[in-house]
Amino acid sequence: MTTWVQSPEGGRERGPRGVARAWVEVLVRPRRFFRNGVAPGDQAPGLVFAVAVAVAYAAGLFAFVPGRLPALGGGPAVSAFVALAVVALLVAPAVLHLTAALQTVLLIALVRDRGGVSETVQVLAYAAAPCVFAGLPVAGLRVVCTVYGAALLVLGVAEVHGTTLPRAAAAAAVPAALLFGYGFGGFAALEAVLRAAGVL
């Protein structure tokens, strides 16, 4: 899980600059990024990327929706620090790998010639890139972030696992719903947008 490929290409550069570069590339040139930036056994940059996205999302929630900040001893600053540490060290890695396990099972059922588990972990991690902004208290923005993330997941699955977009969409539907719909709050944001528009 923590293996670094010695000669990273594309967005898999080490350090904060590498994370920032990967974020820009996957948002602007996703097909090229998934083709060149995902390599077998190179999970560590993807894990670091996913943790960074999860921490940014949680920090946005805690900053703009104070009720989401857990009430721990030591005041708001200590509570925020502890909560973000839990997100970074426990929640983000666990969610990433559990979702990747589910995605792998679905790929086994739907895609004959596919990439490995490490590539699936990386695709899920990088697909979450738009959700850096999903913690902001704007329902429409959260919908856009999560829909874009789901689209990146489908594109990444198709590109990395060498399958068609319809088959990739079928394989990624449930993981996308869990990660972006529930994890990053896309379903709740969509409901809020529809209620505001008078549809619900």
Rounded Rg: 17 Å
**What's the total count of β strands?**
0
Count structural domains: 1
Approximate strand percentage:
under 5%
- Contiguous low-pLDDT stretches (5 residues minimum) are 1-11
One letter per element, helices H and strands E, the order comes to HHHHHHHH
Largest sheet: none
Residues in helices, as a percent range: over 70%
What best-fitting shape do the alpha-carbon axes yield? globular
Structural class: mainly alpha
CA-CA gap between termini: 44 Å
Instruction: Output the number of helix runs.
Output: 8
Calculate the mean pLDDT score and round it.
90
Subcellular location: Membrane
Membrane topology: Multi-pass membrane protein
Keywords: Membrane, Transmembrane, Transmembrane helix
Protein name: Yip1 domain-containing protein
